[in-house]
Each structure stands twice: as structure tokens, then as C-alpha cells.
Amino acid sequence: MRKVVKTILTIFVLVTITCFFFYHKILNAPVQVMAKDISIESPLMTQQKLEDFEYMYNILKENFPFFEVKKRLLGYDWLSRKSEFEEWIKETKNDKEFYDTMRRILNLLQNGHTHILRPQAYKAYKYFCEVYNTGSWISGYGPWQQVLNNKNVAERYKYWSSIINEDKRYVVPIFFKYVEGKYVADYAIREKSLEDYDIERGSILQKIDDLTTKEYIESLKDKEFLKYDFKRNEFKMNQLLISTPDIQIVKLTFLTPEGKIVERDVKSVVMYTNPPGNIKDIKNFATAIIKKDKIAYLKIYKFAFDYKKEQEAIYEFLNQVKNYPYLIIDVRGNPGGNDMYWMENIVAPLIDKPLKTNYYIVVRNGEYIKPFIKARFGLSLLSFKSTKELPRNLNFPEELRGDFGKFACFSKSISPKNPVGFKGKIFLLVDEYVYSSSESFASFAKATKWATLVGTATGGDGIGVDPAICALPNSGLIFRFPFDMGINPDGTINEEKHTQPDIYVEETYEDFLNPDDPRFSGTPFNDDAVIKKILEMID
Predict the structure, then answer these.
(1) Are 450 and 347 in contact (CB under 8 A)?
(2) How distant, in Å, are the alpha carbons of 61, 67, 277 from that of 78?
(3) Which of 57, 143, 290, 405 has the most crowded Cβ, counting Cβ within 10 A?
């Protein structure tokens, strides 16, 4: 009997060890890092540049899930422009031009998670490197670590750091704000005022040199990540700062608030883009009492990766206002970060029972993303079903009805954690800058009806996991791209339709010209159109 028990225990231990190493192998499955062991001290040859582009193109063709979405939104087929892109590559005269051209090509996909990893970001180990390199195989970042820690890639980025300087740009020193489809002069930079340029605040920008404003925004698709105005069906920039290749005079044509057409010649200036050196000490949230014992306000600027750092302070505020009938949570302008920030710091202490929503994730059939899928979902593609089996009762787009790839249905559930006992109504303020994990927050809040969303449509691409990264074979440059397609509860693609607010509110041109409203002079937000709308509803 003892021998039998001993044998069973031995088998159990062996199976456990085998499973452990098998799981370890899954999460650390080798990623195809193609950076060659060649010297990069001399400029890349044209053939090497073309090889890098070809490699990137094929990885995206087989793994990027949004080509049909982008075709609908952008009006062009990125994949069909391969020959054009190759000509761009051939025309590059040096490595700096190659770097800029590769960024330009990826910008044309207009996805905020698709881009070349900047040398400064890699060198500083902030954002990408800091997150991925501090993870262990248990946290599922093995494939990311393999790319980032590749010896050849690290050497290449030393080289790219020496030739790429993105610390400054040349700009026309006027900030324009997007208001009801118009770009209006808001303020000047560099300790100047609009009066110094003889420009009246509220003047509507009509032309930049010979381009209409609409033509100019269209020309930015290969340079900037644009937002989308669902109300007017056009791409936009909420804050427009006109860039120039160097110091030069730009002719601006305006329609003044009085209805006059005027022209102004404005010289561009140098603007330095270095972040503040003490960035770790920047607070990611702010609080206010709009009306004592009635309306509390919590602003989250960014969902920091170190979410526990501010957990206690946020909890203290929520506990302080637990008996208030209204809480406004403002994530406008929040570019995302870490889902754990909003799940643990905001939702968990404000609920008294679990919240749950189901969502679909769709992936392509490409080989490259398989280790990333295993690492982040803990599943192989064998656990996913063919998109042919997607439910018929939801609004899935036509391309997902065939052999597009694989899908899985997941649940996101949040349980109460030290609940403060809040019983009031929550308003969540959103806009087009709500992206990535802040988009995930907005989507979850709307799907569970935990909060009422107020503002404009979000930025999208927030349902899913971290984008994949890939090193190019010759240059060693890393490009980033989403490998999973998040689906809204109604079957629409989150990257395409985003999350729409329950109550649509945008600043009007009249609000911009006359921001102070005497009806709300007793509040600290009397010039905020969205908050004023909420106060009107409450009162």
C-alpha cells in the first residue's frame, strides 16, 4: 500500500513539475527577433532598408486585425500601397530619412498603438521598457522581454539614439482649439499673446498657406495620430499646433468673430518636447468639491502603471464623499496606462457587489503573434474558435463572418474591495483622448451601467491587451502593433465605433467665446460646458 501511495505521489510531483515547465515554456515561447549580427556603424544599404520594410509589411499583413476597419474609415487600402511605400524607402538618402519614412508609413494606419518605438523611449526604459522588462514570466511578458532585451536590438538602439533627436520641433506659436468642427485661435505660446500677432481670440482658421483647414488636416494622416468626430464624420485634432520643417513664415487666413476675413503672416518657432525631469513625482489625479455635501469631483489624468502608489489617497477621498448623492469622474484627456488603476483604485471601492461584462476578442491566424497570445491570455490558438462561429445576433462586420481568424469570449469581473458604501449616481466624463486602458474603463462602465457617460465619443482601441512588438532584421528598430481586436457588447469593433456617450455634450462656439456662465459662478468649473450640463440636469 505504501508503495502504491509513494508511486502516486511520485507521479503527481512529476506531472506538477512537467506542467510547471510546460506553462513556463508557453509564456516564454521564442519570438522571432530578426535583428542580424551586423555592424550598423555604417549607413544601411537600400537593400537592407527594403528588407526591413518587407518584413514589417508581411508581419502586419498576417497579424494586424484592422485593415478592413481602416479601409472604411480612411478611404484607402494600406496594403495596396506597398509599391508606393517601397519607392519612398528607395528615396531615403540616409538612416534618419529611413527612420522618418518608416514612421510615416505606419502613421498612415492611424492606430495609436501602431508605431516605431522611439530611441528616447527605449533608452530611458520608460513606458515600454520599464513595464515589460520588470515583468516576470508569471506576469506574461516573456515575448516582450525577448524582443526588448535582445543584445543586437539593444546595440542598434544605441546607434539610433545617436542620430535621432526628437527633443524639438518647429511650430507656428498659436494653439487652435477644435470647436464644433472649427479650429479657433485659443492662445499663443512662448510668453506671447494673440494680440502680439494681431489675431483676435476666437478667430476661425480658414487656410494654412494655400491649403484649406480641411485639406491641411487630411495632409497630417502620415504625420500625426488624428481623432475622429463621429458627429461630423471627419478626422480632427482637438488641439492643433501647426508644424513646419524649419523656421519659416506661414500665411494664416482667419474669419474673425465679427465675420471679417483677415490674413496674418506668422513666423514659426522652436518648441522643445522634453518631458519634465521629475516626471515620477507628477500626480495622476485631482479632487474637488463642486457643491458641499452634494457633488464631488475626481479627475484622473493617466492610469499610472504603479497604481498602488495613489491608491490610499484616492480611497481617502472616496471615503470622504461616500454619502454624496453625485460623483463626477473625469477621464477626459486620459491616454490610458494600466487597467488595474481604475479597477482597483476607483471601481472596487465604489461598488458593493461584483460587476461583470462579457466581451469578444478576435485575432488573426498569423504565426508571429502566437507567443503573445499564449503569454497574455494563457491560452494557445487551439482554445480559440473560428470567426465563422461568431454569434449571428450581434452587429459583427462582414469581414468577421468568414475565415478571418479566431475568437474567444472573455469575462471582465470586478469585486468590491474595502467598499466605502457609496450609493449615489456616477457621471463619467469622456472625450476623444480617452484611449487604451481609459477606453477599457469607459467601455466597462457603459456595458455594466455602472456610470452614465457624458461628453463626446472616446478614442477607441481599449478592449484587449498590450500591443505586440517586433524587431526589424537589419535596423533593429522595434515596431508596435495591436494583435487583438476588441469587440463592443453590440458586436461592433471598438477601434472603429469606439464607445459612444450616453449623453452627448460638446463645447459650442458660443461657449468658447463666452466661457463664464453667471449661473455657475459659485463653482470652480463655470467655464466647462460638460460639467455645466451635468449641473443643469442635477439642479
Answers:
(1) yes
(2) 10, 7, 38
(3) 143
Distances (CA, A) of 141 to 276, 309, 409, 461: 28, 22, 22, 20
The Cα–Cα gap between 104 and 519 comes to 48
Q: What is the three-class DSSP state of 134?
A: helix
Q: Residue 206: is it exposed, middle or buried by C-beta count within 10 angstroms (0-12/13-18/19+)?
A: middle
> Contact 185/254 with Cβ under 8 angstroms?
yes
Instruction: Please report, as a single letter, which amino acid is at residue 138.
Output: I
User: Pairing mode, if any, of strands 295-300 and 326-330?
Assistant: parallel
| Predicted TM-score (pTM) of this structure | 0.87
Distance, CA of 143 to CA of 33 (rounded, Å): 10
Amino acid (1-letter code) at residue 508 = T
The residue among 385, 333, 342, 340 whose CA lies nearest residue 361 is: 385
Dihedral over alpha carbons 32, 35, 36, 38 (to 10 degrees): -170
Show the cell assigned to 71.
Answer: 479601409
Q: Cα–Cα distances in Å, from 338 out to 33, 277, 300, 436?
A: 26, 22, 12, 9
- Distance in angstroms (rounded) separating the CA atoms of residues 119 and 40: 15
Residue 144's H or E segment, with its range, is helix 142-148
117-175 per-position pLDDT tens digit: 998 878 654 445 455 555 443 356 788 888 888 889 989 999 999 999 888 899 999 99
Please report where in the chains the cell 485593415 appears, as a residue: 67
Q: What is the DSSP annotation of 303-325? A: B-SSGGGGHHHHHHHHHHTTT-S
| DSSP sequence for 431-445 | -TT-BTHHHHHHHHH
CA distances from 243 to 203, 235, 240, 376, 453 (A): 19, 18, 9, 38, 34
| 202-248 pLDDT tens trace | 999 999 999 999 999 999 999 999 999 999 999 999 999 999 999 99
All 3 cell numbers of residue 466?
A: 498590450
Q: What is the largest CA-CA distance in the chain?
A: 100
Radius of gyration of the chain (CA): 25
Closest CA to 386 of 367, 370, 362: 362
Q: Strand pairing partners for 287?
A: 298
Q: Which amino acid is at 368?
A: Y
For residue 160, how many C-alpha atoms fall within 13 Å in the half-sphere facing its CB?
Answer: 25
Contact assessment for residue 364 and residue 483, using Cβ atoms and an 8 Å cutoff: yes
Interatomic CA distance for residues 349 and 422, integer angstroms: 8
Q: What is the DSSP letter of 344?
A: I
Output the CA–CA distances (angstroms, integers) from residue 256 to 51, 185, 212, 383, 395, in the order listed: 52, 10, 16, 60, 45
